[in-house]
Amino acid sequence: MTTKINIDKNTFFGKLCYACQDKWTAYIQHEFIQKIGDGSLPNACFQRYLVQDYLYLIQLARAWALVVYKSDELENMRSAVSVLHNLLHKEIELHVDYCTSWGISQTELSNAIEEKNTLAYSRYILDCGLSGDILDLYVALTPCNVGYVVIAQNLMNVERQRLLWTRQEKFSKTFLGCSDNPYLPWIEMYANKVNRQIAEQSIQNLEHFANLRMNDKRLPQLVKIFGQALEFEIGFWEIGLLS
Q1: How far apart are CA 241 and CA 238, in angstroms?
Q2: Is 123 within 8 Å of 129 (Cβ atoms)?
Q3: Which run of H or of E encompasses 137?
Q4: What is the pTM of this model?
Q5: Which CATH superfamily groups domain 12-241?
Q6: 165 - beta bridge partners?
Q7: pLDDT at res. 13
Q8: The predicted structure's pLDDT at residue 15
């Protein structure tokens, strides 16, 4: 069983989530996500999302390189390099392979153009890091770093209620009363152990930087950054629904 990401309101991460509770809920329970969960999202919507997500992942790698640059401690640099390495050598490659399975070629991905929200979101994160410190950057990254895993875990919990269990406690891949969900591999990918560990480490690092750099005067601005990043994430789901 997967360990669930918990949101403790006594932590800095929890305070951000509760301060932006409506936006956080709108993000993790968006119509796009609900349609992925029940398998009703039109293929064209998902394909459009996949292309934009590929372009976003490239910019996300640059953001993690910026985390390395902004880090004051060697251990934090190593942690960021680990995430960056996973992005460049695993996640992006897996994403390309997954896009291929959906009929999207590497050429199509390479020639794709960032839509306005994709461009605005990724550049917002980079700007937070360039104009602010590492805490600003980490706060801007957190909705993506942690949110996808929370979303996937929530969807997997729903999936468990709908799937038959084998005696080996593995999914049978057959829905109770309906067909297979074509988006199950996407859900499983973000709910897997590697991504969960990255999310957990991201929360730990966020707490660490908050302990070092946070004060009451900074909190409103950090909440604003977190809320703006959530709005961009919500807008990212909207890209798919436009297809």
Answers
A1: 5
A2: no
A3: helix 134-162
A4: 0.89
A5: Heme oxygenase-like (1.20.910.10)
A6: 171
A7: 97
A8: 96
CA atoms within 13 A on the CB side of 68: 14
Please name which of 228, 229, 224, 222 lies closest in space to residue 206, comparing C-alpha atoms: 222
Tell me, what's the pLDDT at 161? 60
User: Would you say 35 and 69 are in contact if contact means Cβ atoms under 8 Å apart?
Assistant: no
Cα three-residue angle 54-59-61, rounded to 5 degrees: 95
CA nearest neighbour of 181 among 202, 160, 151 = 160
Identify the pLDDT of residue 163: 57
Dihedrals phi, psi of 177, to nearest 5 degrees: 90, 5
Question: Tokens for 86?
Answer: 């996973």
Question: In the chain, what are the domain boundaries?
Answer: 12-241
Element (H, E) at 165: strand 163-165
Rg (CA), the chain: 18
The secondary element (H helix, E strand) that includes residue 175 is strand 171-175
Phi-psi region of 173 (alpha: psi -120 to 50; beta: other; left: phi over 0): left
Q: In 3D, which of 134, 195, 138, 183 has the Cα closest to residue 158? A: 183
Measure Cα distances from 126 to 16, 65, 154, 216 in Å: 20, 10, 29, 24
Ramachandran region of residue 170, left (φ > 0), alpha (ψ -120 to 50) or beta?
beta
Mean pLDDT of each 10-residue bin along the chain, 243 residues long: 75 97 97 95 96 98 97 92 93 96 97 96 97 97 96 84 47 45 92 90 95 94 98 94 80
